[in-house]
Amino acid sequence: MAKLVLIRHGQSEWNLSNQFTGWVDVDLSEKGVEQAKAAGRALKEHGIQFDYAYTSVLKRAIKTLHIALEECDQLWIPEFKTWRLNERHYGALQGLNKKKTAEKYGAEQVHIWRRSYDVLPPLLKATDEGSAAKDRRYANLDPRTIPGGENLKVTLERVIPLWQDQIAPKLLDGKNVVIAAHGNSLRALSKYIENISDADIMNLEMATGQPVVYDFDDKLNVLNKEKYDID
Ligand SMILES: O=C(O)[C@@H](CO)OP(=O)(O)O
């Protein structure tokens, strides 16, 4: 049956500098490019042939997808970019250094902001500097849809329509799908696919660049989950 491969983008410049990133469109670091290549090599070694690719509208995920697909000679497959796969929006935390924020607000508060299921970060207003409402790539969205900050719950709520309308039907049709996206949009999707509880999802982490491969039965129950080595 069909395979789904999730790839968190390779290390970004702000992963490297330890800054909250969210919807800020930062690039891959050199290490991130190497991780994306290694992901593509692992996919090639395992002989996975894709039918469709999905990614976000943020360059760290788009580039990871392209670099990985180039390595396994599948750059030609149909590809869809959507804001629904963006990283969770980190609100007013975006751009701040995570360590300095923990020193200011306490490690416990920062852990809650980063990993709780339903606590929102401090929100950005539509008129604030850096608000996505000013970004042309979201111009076709209903302004009420553009977040000022998201928790994992809200992130999952905007990922689910993409899953239900586009990805699940392709998998049910036996097509192999690759999704290159972000730590938290992929944690949200994994929660849904694996039916992980609100409490347990706090402990799920996605490594940069590492392909996570799901095999499904014909009702989209998970038969197998495997992480490919990229070291
Ligand atoms: O800053 C972010 O956007 C994310 C991913 O890098 O961080 P965290 O893992 O802390 O949720």
TrEMBL record:
<feature type="binding site">
    <location>
        <begin position="21"/>
        <end position="22"/>
    </location>
    <ligand>
        <name>substrate</name>
    </ligand>
</feature>
<feature type="active site" description="Tele-phosphohistidine intermediate">
    <location>
        <position position="9"/>
    </location>
</feature>
<dbReference type="GO" id="GO:0006096">
    <property type="term" value="P:glycolytic process"/>
</dbReference>
<dbReference type="GO" id="GO:0004619">
    <property type="term" value="F:phosphoglycerate mutase activity"/>
</dbReference>
<comment type="pathway">
    <text>Carbohydrate degradation; glycolysis; pyruvate from D-glyceraldehyde 3-phosphate: step 3/5.</text>
</comment>
<feature type="binding site">
    <location>
        <position position="98"/>
    </location>
    <ligand>
        <name>substrate</name>
    </ligand>
</feature>
<keyword id="KW-0312">Gluconeogenesis</keyword>
<feature type="binding site">
    <location>
        <position position="60"/>
    </location>
    <ligand>
        <name>substrate</name>
    </ligand>
</feature>
<dbReference type="InterPro" id="IPR013078">
    <property type="entry name" value="His_Pase_superF_clade-1"/>
</dbReference>
<dbReference type="InterPro" id="IPR001345">
    <property type="entry name" value="PG/BPGM_mutase_AS"/>
</dbReference>
<protein>
    <recommendedName>
        <fullName>2,3-bisphosphoglycerate-dependent phosphoglycerate mutase</fullName>
        <ecNumber>5.4.2.11</ecNumber>
    </recommendedName>
</protein>
<feature type="binding site">
    <location>
        <begin position="114"/>
        <end position="115"/>
    </location>
    <ligand>
        <name>substrate</name>
    </ligand>
</feature>
<feature type="site" description="Transition state stabilizer">
    <location>
        <position position="182"/>
    </location>
</feature>
<comment type="function">
    <text>Catalyzes the interconversion of 2-phosphoglycerate and 3-phosphoglycerate.</text>
</comment>
<feature type="binding site">
    <location>
        <begin position="183"/>
        <end position="184"/>
    </location>
    <ligand>
        <name>substrate</name>
    </ligand>
</feature>
<dbReference type="InterPro" id="IPR005952">
    <property type="entry name" value="Phosphogly_mut1"/>
</dbReference>
<comment type="similarity">
    <text>Belongs to the phosphoglycerate mutase family. BPG-dependent PGAM subfamily.</text>
</comment>
<feature type="binding site">
    <location>
        <begin position="8"/>
        <end position="15"/>
    </location>
    <ligand>
        <name>substrate</name>
    </ligand>
</feature>
<keyword id="KW-0413">Isomerase</keyword>
<dbReference type="InterPro" id="IPR029033">
    <property type="entry name" value="His_PPase_superfam"/>
</dbReference>
<keyword id="KW-0324">Glycolysis</keyword>
<dbReference type="GO" id="GO:0006094">
    <property type="term" value="P:gluconeogenesis"/>
</dbReference>
<feature type="active site" description="Proton donor/acceptor">
    <location>
        <position position="87"/>
    </location>
</feature>
<feature type="binding site">
    <location>
        <begin position="87"/>
        <end position="90"/>
    </location>
    <ligand>
        <name>substrate</name>
    </ligand>
</feature>
<dbReference type="Pfam" id="PF00300">
    <property type="entry name" value="His_Phos_1"/>
</dbReference>
